[in-house]
From TrEMBL:
It comes from Sphingobacterium tenebrionis. Decomposes hydrogen peroxide into water and oxygen; serves to protect cells from the toxic effects of hydrogen peroxide. The keyword Iron applies. Gene3D superfamilies: 1.20.1370.20, 3.40.50.880, Catalase core domain. This is Catalase.
């Protein structure tokens, strides 16, 4: 895939240092002739306190770790570009959304609950945050791979995080929600029901970061040139589809390769398989704010795509890995409050709290108010204001003015114009080049007065606000179960089974039976079928009514709770299931394990490898040892993967070629483990004609996902079955616990 030039690269390159052919210096540029020995009084004597080079080195080392993020600590990042492809000028003045505009981006994916060193494959929400380096400043679209959240009001944000984190007395479990404190909180918060179903679905254990959707979660606003607002929700739709792994598989991947997602993203970009997402928007006219049976400002609700279709407006391509993880991925500061002209906040009460929380967090975590001067956070159009001081200041601001308005600095930096203003207003014109204002004492002029034409200042959309100051919630936020039911009923039978198993696993880890009962009562309100199936696995009969303690907390927010919900417009959505529809899907970038040994037929390997690579997949040869593989005909090939160094859980499909290697494989328990486990995890397996007999030595049974060369069009069928991602029906037919 051809990469487009990233305009952010040149700016970042100014800060990239290459040590090749460079003499070593101290942090002050002083040449160093010995970086191995401290300064001592004699070569066996005590070290001297005057060794400033040693202290300089060690003080830097002692401070190399900054506080990790409280949430989203475990992350992976990449650079790329976003290209706008639709004309939105009638609804937003956002410059980067003008058709044909290419904007550099930096994206950070993350897990939420675990510490920085936790596994990639935890059952968890994935952060999906995009920093757009627009010509009007940085815009951060801070989202998740799940479109809703656990809570409605930011006042509860510290509580949900504290609940899901390791329990404070013993600091376990790591990166897991399967413990008492989390489910204690969830079982007392009916508003969490919808999100809890998403987290117990396959969405929470993705196959790859390249195969997740992204959502803004919150409703925002577009603002056009006339100041008219349109409500908007953002969606990222991956070109590779949305896929997960089996829970049993995820647990094993965590042990075998805790960096599985991070490695997968890096390798894909490094190999030129640039991940792509289409950016879509759901647009709701201002006058339709209260049109639906749910409240569009409620972050625990989606807007079903059957009601408001997603309009694709552009494409993002990730095409460059970071040069340095710490300097870029770790120091990248995301904040939903970083907006550009044409985008505004809604009154979503969770979003309103995040506006403060994220900025405050980055200020603390990155050591002060100048974190935006770090290269990864710098806007491409520069920054010009009167803030001169503070920790970590990098820019050197000239002049004697650090206030506004001023006349000493010719009124600079001056204001940008507002929508509708024209450049060079009569009687107050500045210099022709727009670089300085008048020197007649009239400091504080607009860009329009300084001759700047076309530069729009950030403008908040006008909104009439009335009401008493209260700590309450609107009754339009009080329906906690209808959309959770919509999600469950929209899933395939296999996905519903996975969810039942996930809830059963999690609640089995909860020691308090009271908590289990409270949560089952909540799930009964969502869907009795779901609650009864989980209850059967726990040996409990779900209550048909909510626990009194749960009702007490719910009535803190809505005194008349429960409130009769409105009739939903949509009861089943085709957009919520991850199951690949017939005739769709792709095998691009899929990893196919070729299971073989010395004596394998070159023709048997070569034919299938070429067919898979033509379709975009990658063949990975696995043998009993690394080094030279010897083919039956005398050819050789270097092997880097073995049955001992690799595991079936790290591959998407399997092929056993023919040749003299068959006898060796029949006696190799590691080979049999590969194919048995791949089958258990509902993956597609293909066998060359003389390898078909190996199936008899396994517990594999023939189905549509077990392909034999002796069948007609077998190679085409192998690819067709792989496009389904998994043969999930295998679980139901054979009761294989994947």
């Amino acid at each position: 895939m051809k990469s487009k030039k990233n305009p952010k690269t040149e700016q970042l390159d100014k800060h990239v240092v290459d040590n090749m052919d460079r003499m070593m210096t101290s942090n002050d540029g002083v040449p160093i002739h010995d970086n191995n020995n401290t300064l001592k009084a004699g070569n066996r004597g005590p070290s001297l306190q005057q060794d400033h080079l040693f202290f300089d080195k060690l003080m830097h080392f002692d401070r190399e770790r900054i506080p990790e993020r409280v949430v989203h600590a475990r992350g992976s990042g990449a650079h790329g570009v976003f290209e706008a492809k639709e004309d939105l000028s009638d609804i937003t003045v956002a410059d980067f959304l003008k058709k044909g505009t290419v904007t550099p981006v930096f994206v950070r994916f993350s897990t939420v609950a675990g510490f920085k060193g936790s596994t990639d494959l935890a059952r968890d929400v994935r952060g999906f945050s995009v920093k757009f380096y627009t010509q009007e400043g940085n815009y951060d679209l801070v989202g998740n791979n799940i479109p809703v959240f656990f809570i409605q009001d930011a006042m509860n944000f510290p509580d949900v995080v504290h609940a899901v984190k390791p329990e404070p007395d013993k600091e376990i479990p790591q990166a897991a929600s399967a413990h008492d404190t989390f489910w204690d909180f969830i079982s007392l918060m009916p508003e969490s029901a919808h999100m809890s179903l998403w987290v117990m679905s396959d969405r929470a254990i993705p196959r790859s970061l390249r195969m997740i959707e992204g959502f803004s979660v919150h409703t925002f606003k577009f603002v056009n040139a006339e100041g008219k607002t349109t409500f908007v929700k953002f969606h990222w739709k991956p070109r590779l589809g949305v896929h997960g792994v089996a829970w049993n598989e995820a647990q094993k991947i965590s042990g075998f390769d805790a960096d599985f997602h991070r490695r997968d993203l890096w390798d894909a970009i490094d190999q030129g398989n640039f991940p792509q997402w289409d950016l879509g928007v759901q647009l709701i006219p201002e006058e339709d704010e209260m049109k639906f049976s749910f409240d569009i400002l409620d972050p625990t609700k989606i807007i079903p795509e059957e009601l408001v279709p997603v309009k694709i407006i552009g494409t993002m391509t990730l095409n460059r890995n970071p040069e340095n993880f710490f300097a870029e991925t770790e120091q990248a500061a995301f904040d939903p409050g970083r907006l550009v002209p044409g985008i505004d906040f809604s009154d979503d009460p969770l979003l309103q709290g995040r506006i403060f929380s994220y900025m405050d967090t980055q200020n603390y975590r990155l050591g002060g108010p100048n974190f935006h001067e770090l290269p990864i956070n710098r806007p491409v159009n520069g920054k010009y204001n009167n803030q001169k001081d503070g920790f970590g200041r990098m820019d050197v601001l000239k002049g004697n003015t650090s206030y506004f308005p001023n006349s000493q600095g010719n009124g600079c930096p001056y204001h940008a114009m507002l929508n509708g203003e024209m450049g060079g207003s009569e009687g107050n014109a500045g210099s022709a080049d727009g670089k300085s204002g008048s020197s007649d004492g009239k400091g504080g002029m607009h860009a329009a007065q300084a001759g700047m034409k076309g530069t729009q200042g950030y403008q908040t959309g006008r909104q009439e606000v009335q009401g008493l100051k209260v700590r309450e919630r609107s009754n339009s936020f009080a329906d906690h179960f209808t959309q959770a039911r919509l999600f469950f009923n929209s899933l395939s039978e296999e996905e519903q089974t996975h969810m039942i198993n996930a809830f059963s696993f999690e609640l089995s880890k909860v020691n308090s039976e009271d908590i289990r009962k409270r949560e089952l009562a909540i799930l009964y309100q969502v869907e009795p079928k779901l609650a009864n199936a989980i209850g059967k696995n726990l040996g409990l009969t779900p209550s048909k009514t909510l626990d009194e303690l749960t009702l007490k907390f719910a009535r803190n927010n809505h005194p008349d709770y429960p409130i009769k919900p409105n009739k939903p417009e949509v009861e089943k959505s085709a957009y919520l299931s991850m199951k690949v529809k017939d005739g769709e899907g792709t095998i691009e970038t899929r990893q196919v394990a070729f299971l073989l040994d010395d004596g394998v037929s070159f023709e048997s390997v070569d034919k299938v490898r070429k067919a898979l690579e033509k379709a975009g997949a990658k063949a990975v040869l696995i043998s009993s040892k690394v080094g030279q593989l010897k083919y039956k005909g005398g050819e050789t090939e270097k092997i880097q993967h073995t049955y001992l160094t690799d595991a079936s859980v790290c591959f998407d499909a399997f092929y056993t070629p023919g040749g003299d290697s068959i006898a060796k494989l029949a006696e190799n328990p590691d080979y049999l483990q590969f194919i048995n486990e791949g089958y258990r995890h509902c993956k597609v397996l293909a066998f060359a004609k003389d390898a078909e007999g190996l199936v008899e030595r396994s517990f594999i049974r023939k189905d549509e996902g077990v392909v034999f060369e002796s069948e007609s069009d077998w190679l085409a069928n192998f690819i067709t079955q792989m496009k389904k991602h998994r043969i999930w029906a295998r679980e139901m037919a054979r009761k294989v616990p994947s």
